[in-house]
Description:
Elements: E1 3-7, E2 10-12, E3 18-25, E4 32-39, E5 46-51, E6 57-59, E7 67-72, E8 77-82, E9 91-99, E10 114-115, E11 119-123
Parallel strand pairs: 2-11
Antiparallel strand pairs: 1-3, 3-8, 4-5, 4-9, 5-6, 7-8, 9-10, 9-11
Amino acid sequence: QVQLVESGGGLVQPGGSLxxxxxxxxxxxxxxxxxxxxQAPGEERxxxxxxxxAQTKTYSNSVKGRFTISRDNAKSTVSLQxxxxxxxxxxxxxxxxxxxxxxxxxxxxxxxxxxxxxxxVTVSS
Length: 125
């Protein structure tokens, strides 16, 4: 059974930092492209960052230079280090996975067939 479990969310003050983790099971992790998406209330799920099988990283323009995605194939985990957080970053953050394939569009929701349950990140003073 495929399972993606996010952790590390919580309440943080503006300007603070938070690191999210996603533990994967039931997949050959090293052969999968991994990503983070977020969804604020009343909005569609939006791309945040991705790291593919070749360990190439892609970020949305809004988080570039502030967030860092990484993966540990030995531990089957993908992480998202978030620095300089702002209230507009408040959302439920989701981990996503797809077996790597030619033509994979890392920023597209429809690209992924496995999703975690999400973890809440709230940035507020």
